Amino acid sequence: MCSVIWTQQKSKAGQQRKRPSEVAELILPKQEILDASWGFQESFDGKPKLVINARSETIGEKEMFRPHVAMGRAIIQVSKFGDWEHYSHKEKLLWEFSPVLGDVFQLACLWRMNEGQPEFVILTTTANELYARIGDRMPCILTESDTQVWLGQDAEQALGALRTFPAAGMTEKHQEPLQEPLFEI
User: pTM of the entire structure?
Assistant: First the structure.
């Protein structure tokens, strides 16, 4: 999965750490920029839930995502992304993944309007061997050519651009263990 990103925004200098529900800058086809909240606000069994990731293999089948495959494709540029490894009841470790070459990863996203507000999910795929130590899913990282296909006109071809990024193209590091909640209420 992906639960923390560091955005590299075109409209602002430097990196910004983003967590689910926070606003980040998406790049749409034709290089349009859109500020959107991370996560689709949904209701399951009458309870609100924030859906932050979507399995790339099933976005064409799931009712929540299918309508957005044709017209809601976007990317988010991140200098790194991270996820938590839980190794005890109260302790967890943040693993960060950065590109070996270049300044940013381009992550595949779907976006939609919900009650007049844009929101997005990050697409995931099977983890590569580097990411697999903390989970079986990782973000869909697009190469430059895959980015053009993902943002192109043909939705069927776009789905073919979603694949596991090679471990050799990314580096990892971890932060010190965290013994407090990620989110403050």
Answer: 0.88
